[in-house]
Amino acid sequence: MLWALLHGESTVEDARPDRPAPDFDTDAAADPAVAALRAKVELRDEASFTQPYPAHFGASVRVERRDGSVVSHDIPDALGDPENPLSTEQICGKARMLLASASYSSAEADGLIAATLALADGGVVADLTRQLR
């Protein structure tokens, strides 16, 4: 849910355990389980997060459980921002997820990722372009 707050996107792994990969499509948004979760979400503008923008792009999430207890978490800077960078592993994971959603096989994604990472060590752009469809 925090991803949705920071990036305007949502994943539905919890609502759709039969589809563990993140869903960003219209079918996922129309799924009754997703709609039921969406109906429970309230989005508010909080000055403590909007005033520091654009220097910081944070958010807070607060969850009220069925038993009445509350859990919350604040993130002052969005994951992937310079103040809260992604690790190489996280970037590669995101690339794999996005390439899979574009119908690239695991082997194709691995080839693209490897060729991209090799550029930092003197790899050749032609090796990367050969991996593209």
Give the topology, please.
Elements: H1 2-7, H2 26-30, H3 32-38, H4 47-50, E1 59-64, E2 70-75, H5 88-101, H6 106-118, H7 125-131
Antiparallel strand pairs: 1-2
Describe this structure in words.
The chain has 133 residues and is mostly helical. It folds into two domains: 2-75, no CATH class; 88-131, no CATH class. 42% of the residues lie in helices and 9% in strands. The protein has seven helices and two strands. It has a two-stranded antiparallel sheet. It starts with a helix and ends with a helix.
- Topology as a string of helices (H) and strands (E): HHHHEEHHH
As a percent range, the share of strand residues is: 5-15%
Largest sheet: 2 strands, antiparallel
Helix coverage percent: 40-55%
The count of helical stretches stands at 7
Radius of gyration: 18 Å
What would you say about this model in short?
The chain is mainly alpha-helical.
Give me some keywords for this one.
133 residues, mainly alpha, two-stranded antiparallel sheet, 7 helices, extended
